[in-house]
Amino acid sequence: MMRFEKASPIPCSARELFEWHAMPGAFQRLSPPWQPVELIREDPGLDVGKRIELKLGTPIGTRTWLAEHVECTYGEGFVDTQLKGPFVSWTHRHRFRHIDEQNCELIDEIDFELPAGRAGAALAGDYTLEKLERSFAYRHAITRSDVGLGRQLPDFRSLRILISGGSGFLGTNLSAFLRAQGHEVKVLTRSPRLPGDVRWDPANGEVELPRLEGFDAVFHLAGANLSSARWTEARKRELWSSRVDATRFLVDALDRLEKPPSVFLGGSGIGYYGSAAEAVFDESSRRGEGFLAELCEAWEAAAWRAESLGCRVVNLRTGVVLDPRGGALAKMLPAFKLGGGGPLGSGAQWFPWIALEDWIRIATWCLFDRRIVGPVNLVAPGIVRQRDFAQILGKVLRRPAFLPAPRFALKMLLGEMADEALFASTNAVPAALGETDCDFALGELEVALRFCLGR
Q1: Confidence (pTM)
Q2: What string of H, E and C letters represents the secondary structure of 22-55?
């Protein structure tokens, strides 16, 4: 039998920490992004008898993990044990030690037994302990950040929130965070999967209008993937329709409600500014040139129509969001892990990035801070050039990263998209956040990559 222990101070009471763990979304928040995990089902709460079933990626393939809670003491902790999984046995004690009403200590204690007895412990014991250390360092950091943010947010309260694009990369992770914060979250989708999902089909003018009533806020993140296909004329019409036309349709639907939401946070991108070698763009900068800039301008204009309904409108001008579960980083990692990564073209272009965790924090801050209206650049202050990004990613992965992707080859393959999405140089700065108390937890690139990759 082997044992792992980790303890960390958390800025909340033991009762609050217990209640946070009981929230829907908390388990998903605690899953390290570098470890493939698919949640199959999770019973609510933390009571004895609760079960969690998931698919877990291991060095020998995907395994089913089924765990059950066998002890639970309100405000103090709970214990779960493995019923089925990769270990011979596994007992995990989650303890919350009271310090005072503002602080407690989170203590994780795990007793486990590896297959093959002493031989298994000798061969894989240190490896397993190292993996647990990485995972629980991440879990404790997320817990500390999540429970602390509620205390920092201005005018924090529990809300009913609707998310379009809620099954996508950003929407899925934002939804888990908001649910763990105690909000009621529903997804607006063309293909409902859960009982609470709200169906819409903007291309065909269909929406479950009565179910749009009663929401306090809308995150409108839906839109076809910009980088999944070459920008033919037909594809550009699809991109335009999925953003501009769909936003108009949603605002028109909200206008038919008895009480529209008070906040409308619409997706957008730093592509609004176009490309310029050395210019610096803040939220007051003019629109740039190109299809992407025109798309973002029209997208934001469609969202601004919600202002006439009494909504506070925020345009989330998002940079490249970094997380191994999706987006650009997920596409880059296979080549970089094999040592075949490198800069795009010369790599001299500016690379406006943001860690997923900072994107979630700042988007949530925009939800609550009534001073924030209009465009907000969701990009880290520690901007780098694309060649520097490649070198730092290679350093974090301990792989060479010197093989450039030739510009001419990418241009032949991707056409217009290569110029506007891969080789555009956009040095955007988050000026609109400067007058708020919102900050970046992962504003330096190497720190952000090490955090999300567990390195």
Answers
A1: 0.94
A2: CCCCHHHHCCCCCCCEEEEEECCCCCCCCEEEEE
User: Which tokens is 170 given?
Assistant: 């950003």
Confidence of residue 159 (pLDDT cuts 50, 70, 90): very high
Q: How far apart are the first and last CA of the chain?
A: 27
Q: So what's the pLDDT on residue 60?
A: 67
Dist CA 361 CA 388 (whole Å): 25
Structure tokens at 233: 């004329």
Mean pLDDT in residue range 404-430 = 82
User: With contact defined as beta carbons under 8 Å apart, do 319 and 299 qualify?
Assistant: no
- Contact between 312 and 343 (Cβ < 8 Å): no
* pLDDT confidence bin for 421, thresholds 50/70/90: confident
Phi, psi of 348 (to 5 degrees): -80, -15
Q: What is the bridge-based pairing of β-strands 312-318 and 374-378?
A: parallel
59 falls in which pLDDT band (50, 70, 90)?
low
Q: What is the pLDDT of residues 257-294, one digit of tens each?
A: 999 999 999 999 999 999 998 899 999 999 999 999 99
- Partner residues linked to 267 by β-bridges: 316
Mean predicted lDDT score pLDDT of the chain: 92
Residue 73, classed as helix, strand or coil, is strand
276 contacts 425 by C-beta, under 8 angstroms: yes
Residues 6+ apart with CB under 8 A from 178: 25, 161, 185, 364
The pLDDT tens digits for 201-221 are: 999 999 999 999 999 999 999
Residues forming beta bridges with residue 105, ordered by sequence position:
9, 97
The radius of gyration of the chain's CA atoms, rounded to the nearest angstrom, is 23
Alpha-carbon torsion (115, 119, 122, 124), positive or negative: negative
SS3 393: helix
**Containing H/E element for 442?**
none
Q: How far apart are CA 97 and CA 77, in angstroms?
A: 9
Contacts of 88 (CB under 8 A, 6+ apart): 112, 113, 114, 115
Q: Which residue has the tokens 């209206």?
A: 373
**Which residues, in sequence order, are CB contacts of 174 under 8 Å at separation 6+?**
163, 166, 219, 221, 360, 363, 364
Set out the domains of the chain in order of their start, with CATH numbers: 2-152 (3.30.530.20), 160-453 (3.40.50.720)
* Residue 370, pLDDT above cutoff 80: yes
Characterize the bridge pairing of strands 103-113 and 89-100: antiparallel
The token pair at 238 is: 């699809």
Alpha carbon 290 to its chain centroid, in Å, reads: 28
Q: What angle do CA 71, 74, 80 make, to 5 degrees?
A: 25
